Amino acid sequence: MHALTRLASCLIGLAVLAPVHAASDANALRNTAKGLFQPIPDTPPTEVRGLAVTEDQKELGKWLFFDPRLSRSHILSCNSCHSVGTGGADNIPTSIGHGWQRGPRNSPTVYNSVFNIAQFWDGRAADLKEQAMGPVQASVEMNNTPAQVEKTLASIPQYVDAFKRAFPGEKNPVTFENMARAIEAFETTLITPGARFDKFLAGENTLDAEELQGLRLFVDKGCVACHSGKNFGGQAYFPFGVIKKPGADVLPAEDKGRFTVTNTATDEYVFRAAPLRNVALTAPYFHSGEVWELEQAVAIMGSSQLGHELNDKEVGQIASFLRTLSGNAPDIVYPILPPSTAATPKPQH
Amino acid sequence: MHALTRLASCLIGLAVLAPVHAASDANALRNTAKGLFQPIPDTPPTEVRGLAVTEDQKELGKWLFFDPRLSRSHILSCNSCHSVGTGGADNIPTSIGHGWQRGPRNSPTVYNSVFNIAQFWDGRAADLKEQAMGPVQASVEMNNTPAQVEKTLASIPQYVDAFKRAFPGEKNPVTFENMARAIEAFETTLITPGARFDKFLAGENTLDAEELQGLRLFVDKGCVACHSGKNFGGQAYFPFGVIKKPGADVLPAEDKGRFTVTNTATDEYVFRAAPLRNVALTAPYFHSGEVWELEQAVAIMGSSQLGHELNDKEVGQIASFLRTLSGNAPDIVYPILPPSTAATPKPQH
């Protein structure tokens, strides 16, 4: 999955760049872009892992995504750290969880996450179903247990009915795994089509000269080696600091990234390339969440990953281009959650 | 505002109660009820304090209600403790705020709160505008300052535009007070018409025999002395434990209620009668939030306020009736909040 060779090949033979002037230049750039990127589709995937995603699963998953009773405290829901109102993330350096503990890494956006090859910064979850089981149990996040979650959900008749509808034919559908499957089903709907860049890809002249120049730089300087495809990233793993290690504030020595997952020396400080869709909405940046400005993040990537000291103009152009990746989030009506019963476990703080 | 005399008059002359059998009994009960209660209207109030509530104010208020950047930590919003998905409250004993500190009292529901005579358990805020300024500044809640909030909102161009639209003609509309006015405007929309009880009031036969009997008990036993009107409460102040003080778990000695507001000895342990709309969705109960079952809350009220040791059947009937007060919450589309800028103050944890 390493793509160092791909990355290196992109670092070779960079030409002096001319500004994007004419319509023909824009069209040529569009054709290049079409070979590297795909738009976010207008409609969500209809299946995951070969299984159909049903409306009943999505609706149940929406309840669960917003339900703070999945946490031990009854005050933290999926939406607490992956808020659909703020770019699908929490916009703080690293998340605050149970007991006001700080998590180790910046909360990744839930939007378009269904298009990533794997989940978490280190890709340790194969898919969104597996991912959804993590934070519920993590002691610094929701600090709950599968047994307690199942007891909670089984104590609420409307949830029992909703699980039956979502997973018909199962003898005991109220399970921790089905909770995760339903959340995943809801998350498949969290896609953001209609970005200005996607309209450009489709043939519209939605990008101005600065943004077009940013796109050209993004391609020609080699950013695209890691950030391509539908999600502008999220597809493969790369060492952070391949050319030059950033400071310990941005790349803390104690977080060895994917090494923790694979226990392979070459995976030290390796992370999944961040998907850049809606990146303008998901500051602060990097797994450490220590960089607040998009321009600074671009400059750090240039020097640490590509060996380019991008000048301010280039950084500004690339950042302007990245701002065209913000799409249209779906309308999400806040779910009215079914009330607890006498059998529902009480919150613990 | 004390209504002890009113309360006392209701305690006198309670007759032995017969069950509600026939249609004519139900109609007689409906007529009695019509004199005591009013339905939640189908549409929100169009003005507050004689000022029109505009669509632009409501929309801005919705952003603000869901925006965690009103808190110092950037993780707590109005909706954290007054969640529109869980009865307009947080369903834990007392709220958890900045630094995981516990607040002193149970979070009251935001639904139908526009119909209360004043806000907070002790009525210390005259209206929702005044109320909205409290939790933002309380150190155990959002722990922010008016200056910091204004700086935050003024740093985000879309907010500046939204304030201009909401408060046209004002030279500097981005103020802490206008923040509160906008939140109040949004909160006027948080009403829940269509409860089964309201349909009964309107002439439909939506209540079963158990619920009708509960309504009769609610009236005849004297509950109605404090819990009447549109909101079944929220209109006047009463001592908790007028007949018999509940235990210190339910009525902690250190929280003297309205005494803190008025500094008047007769206001010791006086609280605003809780509005009972949607009470089935807002456990746990009382200002201490120490009672989880609606039946237990009813029994405590019977003994502490009315001097009645209600039997299990009566308690069950009253609770069944109270469950008919759950109405239809409005569809609230989760707002997509405008992103921060370089000038936005950073979160502090």
TrEMBL record, chains A, B:
<dbReference type="GO" id="GO:0020037">
    <property type="term" value="F:heme binding"/>
</dbReference>
<keyword id="KW-0732">Signal</keyword>
<feature type="domain" description="Cytochrome c">
    <location>
        <begin position="209"/>
        <end position="326"/>
    </location>
</feature>
<dbReference type="GO" id="GO:0009055">
    <property type="term" value="F:electron transfer activity"/>
</dbReference>
<feature type="binding site" description="axial binding residue">
    <location>
        <position position="227"/>
    </location>
    <ligand>
        <name>heme c 2</name>
    </ligand>
</feature>
<dbReference type="InterPro" id="IPR051395">
    <property type="entry name" value="Cytochrome_c_Peroxidase/MauG"/>
</dbReference>
<feature type="domain" description="Cytochrome c">
    <location>
        <begin position="56"/>
        <end position="164"/>
    </location>
</feature>
<dbReference type="InterPro" id="IPR026259">
    <property type="entry name" value="MauG/Cytc_peroxidase"/>
</dbReference>
<dbReference type="InterPro" id="IPR004852">
    <property type="entry name" value="Di-haem_cyt_c_peroxidsae"/>
</dbReference>
<feature type="binding site" description="covalent">
    <location>
        <position position="223"/>
    </location>
    <ligand>
        <name>heme c 2</name>
    </ligand>
</feature>
<feature type="binding site" description="covalent">
    <location>
        <position position="81"/>
    </location>
    <ligand>
        <name>heme c 1</name>
    </ligand>
</feature>
<keyword id="KW-0574">Periplasm</keyword>
<feature type="binding site" description="covalent">
    <location>
        <position position="78"/>
    </location>
    <ligand>
        <name>heme c 1</name>
    </ligand>
</feature>
<dbReference type="InterPro" id="IPR009056">
    <property type="entry name" value="Cyt_c-like_dom"/>
</dbReference>
<dbReference type="InterPro" id="IPR036909">
    <property type="entry name" value="Cyt_c-like_dom_sf"/>
</dbReference>
<dbReference type="GO" id="GO:0042597">
    <property type="term" value="C:periplasmic space"/>
</dbReference>
<keyword id="KW-0813">Transport</keyword>
<dbReference type="GO" id="GO:0046872">
    <property type="term" value="F:metal ion binding"/>
</dbReference>
<keyword id="KW-0575">Peroxidase</keyword>
<feature type="binding site" description="covalent">
    <location>
        <position position="226"/>
    </location>
    <ligand>
        <name>heme c 2</name>
    </ligand>
</feature>
<dbReference type="Pfam" id="PF03150">
    <property type="entry name" value="CCP_MauG"/>
</dbReference>
<feature type="binding site" description="axial binding residue">
    <location>
        <position position="98"/>
    </location>
    <ligand>
        <name>heme c 1</name>
    </ligand>
</feature>
<dbReference type="Pfam" id="PF00034">
    <property type="entry name" value="Cytochrom_C"/>
</dbReference>
<keyword id="KW-0349">Heme</keyword>
<keyword id="KW-0249">Electron transport</keyword>
<feature type="signal peptide">
    <location>
        <begin position="1"/>
        <end position="22"/>
    </location>
</feature>
<protein>
    <submittedName>
        <fullName>Cytochrome c551 peroxidase</fullName>
        <ecNumber>1.11.1.5</ecNumber>
    </submittedName>
</protein>
<feature type="binding site" description="axial binding residue">
    <location>
        <position position="82"/>
    </location>
    <ligand>
        <name>heme c 1</name>
    </ligand>
</feature>
<keyword id="KW-0479">Metal-binding</keyword>
<dbReference type="GO" id="GO:0004130">
    <property type="term" value="F:cytochrome-c peroxidase activity"/>
</dbReference>
<feature type="binding site" description="axial binding residue">
    <location>
        <position position="301"/>
    </location>
    <ligand>
        <name>heme c 2</name>
    </ligand>
</feature>
<keyword id="KW-0408">Iron</keyword>
<keyword id="KW-0560">Oxidoreductase</keyword>
